[in-house]
Specification:
The protein is mostly helical and 136 residues long. The chain has one domain. The protein is 46% helix and 10% strand. The chain has a 3-stranded antiparallel sheet with strand order 1-2-3. Helix 2 packs antiparallel against helix 4. The longest helix is centred in the middle third of the chain and has 14 residues. The radius of gyration is 18 Å and the shape is flat.
């Protein structure tokens, strides 16, 4: 038996937690399925909903759907970063537009995959429970 307290998520953490990436880069990643992310996906999907449904029935790739997810992720999943510099060593300030530009760069596809994978890692967003109160 397990107490539900151990699987509860923290609403504040779901807005974004700092996750180490590579080369001292840190990414602040919000949880996938947060209300702002879901709303943006819904809003961007509405004009093409019929077409997307047909594609999902035919099980074909959906580049339009992928682009919608990428745009929403750039704005509502990757919400900040630290220690990212341009080629001259100047810090690159986070913005959704810059995040989307990076996500769309084929040479940085691992960055997008990392953000998507970590935004779905429920462990990152769990409430902290001291062991005594959890009954351990």
């Amino acid at each position: 038996m397990a107490k539900l307290t151990l699987v509860k998520t923290d609403p504040d953490k779901e807005k974004g937690v700092w996750v180490p990436y590579e080369l001292d880069i840190e990414l602040k990643i919000a949880r996938v399925g947060n209300p702002k992310f879901d709303e943006m996906v819904r809003r961007l999907s509405e004009p093409t909903l019929k077409e997307q449904r047909a594609k999902s029935r035919n099980k074909t790739d959906d580049p339009l759907g992928d682009e919608i997810i990428m745009k929403a992720a750039a704005k509502h999943l990757l919400v900040d970063w630290k220690h990212i510099e341009d080629e001259e060593g100047k810090p690159i300030k986070y913005s959704p537009a810059k995040a989307l530009e990076m996500f769309q760069d084929p040479a940085l596809r691992d960055l997008y995959k990392f953000v998507m994978a970590n935004s779905g890692d429920s462990e990152r967003y769990r409430m902290e429970v001291d062991e005594e109160s959890a009954g351990n």
